[in-house]
Write a structure and sequence with these properties.
Number of helices: 6
Strand order of the largest sheet: 1-5-6-7
Distance between the termini: 19 Å
Radius of gyration: 15 Å
CATH topology: Rossmann fold
Number of domains: 1
CATH class: Alpha Beta
Structural class: alpha/beta
Strand content: 15-25%
CATH architecture: 3-Layer(aba) Sandwich
């Protein structure tokens, strides 16, 4: 898995992705419902986005898992709600077999707890354990915050 620190320029991220089968992004996500291809991840911390457009142009033959621990990474716009153009689908188009994304803004502490559990399960049970690991983590969050689906229902798995 490639782990890049805050402040990594977008060209560096794009150059490193082909060399790693797994990627985890813990940064700010920006959804642009009017122009979904301009949605992106603020990997640099300076507003220079790793966009849907840039990611979807990649052709990654050995990509397995992308965890998009950021807000709005699977959000679609109201105009093209039936056309799934978002960061999660861009990573799948680039070649990632499995992607974890979010439908709306998420709390950092909640995302961190969920992702620690998911990564631990995948580390011990393999990549095929991912859907079940995410489901179990979401159920745990639901049990902790039963009246707040905005806290636990945002995370989703896309893949095969």
């Amino acid at each position: 898995m490639t782990l890049l620190g805050g402040g990594t320029p977008v060209p560096d991220v794009l150059a490193r992705l082909p060399h790693h089968r797994r990627a985890h992004f813990g940064c700010h996500g920006v959804a642009d419902p009017a122009h979904p291809s301009d949605s992106g991840l603020d990997v640099s911390g300076a507003g220079d986005l790793l966009t849907v457009s840039a990611v979807s142009r990649l052709q990654l033959d050995h990509a397995e898992l992308a965890v998009l621990a950021a807000c709005d990474t699977a959000r679609t716009g109201p105009v093209l709600a039936d056309e799934v153009i978002n960061l999660a689908s861009a990573f799948q188009l680039a070649g990632y077999r499995q992607v974890v994304g979010t439908l709306w803004p998420v709390l950092d502490t909640v995302a961190a707890r969920l992702n620690r559990r998911v990564h631990a399960t995948v580390a011990s049970g393999g990549l095929d354990a991912l859907p079940h690991a995410l489901h179990a983590a979401v159920l745990d969050l639901r049990d902790r915050h039963p009246g707040l689906p905005s806290v636990w229902a945002a995370h989703l798995h896309a893949g095969r």
